[in-house]
């Protein structure tokens, strides 16, 4: 579904933001069901609710949500320090960590909800995403920022965040994510690694009663529920560093082995992409905080 940009324009005064609202649909084998395009109904009341009623132009609460597992000694503390500067609340689901990760999370005052799973759901990622969404929705958020425990938003992105959410026209915001490689000075760019060449929606307005759901995939599940894609949104040029590949070669080998164990036949991802993790001479591009 693509909205006519001549009919719907966004009015957010933020840096490096596309001027037109548009809805980008995740490619799926089938078209979006008509039920998702109909007026949403509240499951509690059994009657339509007004989207306009939950769109506020000011005083929106921004809640970050993270799923974590065995993050000690990695980037979690830096990410939580960073989020604490610009979000109002943080919700975390711990996927049965064995290294004391929940204790790290509890040390942050903005963590208002921490749910610790007894059994890991990493091999069923859609269930883990759903558990996180339900936990975050239970805190009455206005906007939800889906963050991984190895992602840092740029200074300009953090400065723009309030302008992006305090508006009544767009319901999701997309950023450009960069796969940092072997450190924080370069990101990877080649025919298999181009996450930054497209926009990734990670910030969404929460609307009680709207029919949210995740695709039942065990791996590579989108960070936001699929029905968000039929709503109007904003694609920005604001940057996010993904540090998942910024560590040592040993770290990357461990991730490669984990991907191959979870998805040995390439059911959820590309086997060629998995093999490229071990490329001894990847093409790297110098990182610049902002253009």
Write the layout of secondary structure elements.
Layout: H1 34-37, H2 51-54, E1 62-68, H3 76-84, E2 89-94, H4 101-106, E3 111-116, H5 125-137, E4 143-146, E5 151-153, H6 155-165, E6 172-179, E7 186-188, E8 200-205, E9 233-242, H7 249-262, H8 271-276, E10 284-286
Parallel strand pairs: 1-2, 1-4, 2-3, 6-9
Antiparallel strand pairs: 4-8, 5-9, 6-8, 7-10
Main features:
alpha/beta, two-stranded antiparallel sheet, globular, 8-stranded mixed β-sheet, 23% helix, 19% strand
Write up what this structure looks like.
The chain is of the alpha/beta class and 291 residues long. 23% of the residues lie in helices and 19% in strands. The protein is built from 8 helices and 10 strands. The strands form 2 sheets. It has an 8-stranded mixed β-sheet. A two-stranded antiparallel sheet has the order 7-10. Strand 2 (89-94), helix 4 (101-106) and strand 3 (111-116) form a beta-alpha-beta unit. The longest helix is centred in the C-terminal third of the chain and has 14 residues, at 249-262. The protein is globular. The model is unreliable at 1-48 (pLDDT under 50).
């Amino acid at each position: 579904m693509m909205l006519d940009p001549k009919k719907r324009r966004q009015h957010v005064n933020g840096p490096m933001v596309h001027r037109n609202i548009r809805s980008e649909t995740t490619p799926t084998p089938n078209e979006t069901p008509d039920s998702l395009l109909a007026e949403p109904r509240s499951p509690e009341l059994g009657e339509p609710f007004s989207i306009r009623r939950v769109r506020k132009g000011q005083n929106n609460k921004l809640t970050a949500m993270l799923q974590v597992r065995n993050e000690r000694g990695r980037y979690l503390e830096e990410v939580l320090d960073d989020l604490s500067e610009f979000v109002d609340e943080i919700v975390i689901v711990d996927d049965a960590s064995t290294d004391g990760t929940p204790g790290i999370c509890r040390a942050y005052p903005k963590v208002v909800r921490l749910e610790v799973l007894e059994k890991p759901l990493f091999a069923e990622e859609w269930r883990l995403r759903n558990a996180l969404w339900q936990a975050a929705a239970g805190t009455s958020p206005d906007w939800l920022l889906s963050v991984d425990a190895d992602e840092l938003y740029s200074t300009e992105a953090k400065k723009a965040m309030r302008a992006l959410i305090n508006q009544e026209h767009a319901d999701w915001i997309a950023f450009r994510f960069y796969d940092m490689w072997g450190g924080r000075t370069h990101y990877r760019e080649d025919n298999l690694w181009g996450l930054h060449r497209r926009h990734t929606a990670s910030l969404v307005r929460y609307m009680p009663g709207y029919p949210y759901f995740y695709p039942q995939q065990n791996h590579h599940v989108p960070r936001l529920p699929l029905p968000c894609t039929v709503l109007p949104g904003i694609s920005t040029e604001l940057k996010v560093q993904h540090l998942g590949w910024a560590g040592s070669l040993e770290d990357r080998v461990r991730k490669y082995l984990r991907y191959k164990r979870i998805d040995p036949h390439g059911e959820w991802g590309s086997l060629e992409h998995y093999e490229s993790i071990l490329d001894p001479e990847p093409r790297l591009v110098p990182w610049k905080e902002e253009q």
